[in-house]
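Figure 3 (text version): structure tokens given as input.
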């Protein structure tokens, strides 16, 4: 999850810079195609293409179609509202994940998980602070991305029960390359040398961030892993303040504190359970 957090922060900055010159469709297509090249060493280490066969191709196709639409909305929102707001609104996602994981994956909803999500969402609300006229178009686009990501992450947790992280990554890049080929060609323009650097960063971070996420979900419940992702809100607020002079005030600091508190609350039971397990397995 530390790898996921770092790479997702970098991709937000690199994506915003790349889209000063490129459209969202072109950036996403280049990210997927370059990602396939970057993933190849892991594919070879896993046993090559034969090791990536799956009996759940339909689920991969559905998951990545939803993820593609959510990713488009997320990149588009980066050009419409401040960086911290995009990430903060994205964190309405964990409440949907808790519900979806309970309904479809059989994960248990505990009081501590509910309280952790509630504290996180309250912190997000303090950072976003929508106006009295309601959410802006950029905030609505970011909210649509959050809903799509919630479905995608829940399906990833289900897919990790049978498929490896490399298999998930490979099919994600293949499906999304096919989905975006025609829209990208329609608006294609060759990027400048400087923009190529940002595109490569987006491709690298987009590829290996999802590898980190898939590995994290293999080791823990979605309802434990995903609230840790709340840390992206204060980190993005800090990056927006440093790089783009975006506002960071007292309410942002209070919201950050609530988010961190929710994460600590959510992680305490998991930490105790892991500490206890070795003694139970080997009482001698």
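Below: residues designed for each position.
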């Amino acid at each position: 999850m530390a790898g996921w957090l770092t790479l997702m922060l970098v991709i937000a900055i690199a994506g915003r810079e790349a889209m000063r010159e490129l459209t969202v469709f072109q950036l996403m297509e280049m990210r997927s195609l370059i990602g396939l090249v970057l993933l190849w060493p892991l594919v070879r280490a896993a046993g090559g293409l034969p090791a990536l066969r799956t009996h759940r191709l339909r689920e991969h196709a559905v998951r990545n179609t939803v993820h593609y639409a959510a990713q488009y909305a997320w990149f588009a929102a980066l050009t419409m509202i401040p960086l911290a707001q995009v990430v903060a609104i994205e964190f309405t996602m964990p409440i949907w994940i808790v519900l979806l994981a309970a309904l479809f994956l059989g994960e248990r909803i505990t009081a501590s998980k509910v309280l952790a999500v509630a504290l996180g969402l309250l912190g997000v609300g303090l950072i976003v602070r929508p106006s009295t006229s309601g959410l802006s178009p950029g905030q609505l686009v970011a909210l649509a991305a959050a809903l799509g990501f919630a479905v995608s992450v829940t399906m990833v947790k289900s897919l990790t029960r049978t498929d490896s992280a490399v298999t998930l990554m490979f099919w994600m890049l293949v499906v999304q390359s096919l989905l975006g080929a025609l829209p990208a060609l329609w608006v294609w323009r060759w990027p400048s040398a400087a923009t190529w650097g940002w595109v490569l960063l987006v491709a690298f971070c987009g590829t290996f961030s999802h590898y980190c996420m898939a590995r994290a979900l293999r080791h823990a419940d979605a309802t434990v892993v995903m609230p840790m992702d709340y840390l992206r809100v204060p980190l993005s607020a800090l990056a927006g303040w440093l790089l783009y002079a975006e506002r960071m005030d007292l309410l942002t600091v209070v919201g950050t504190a609530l988010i961190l508190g929710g994460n600590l609350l959510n992680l305490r039971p998991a930490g105790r359970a892991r500490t206890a397990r070795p003694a139970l397995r080997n009482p001698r």
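Confidence is low (pLDDT under 50) at residues 270-284.
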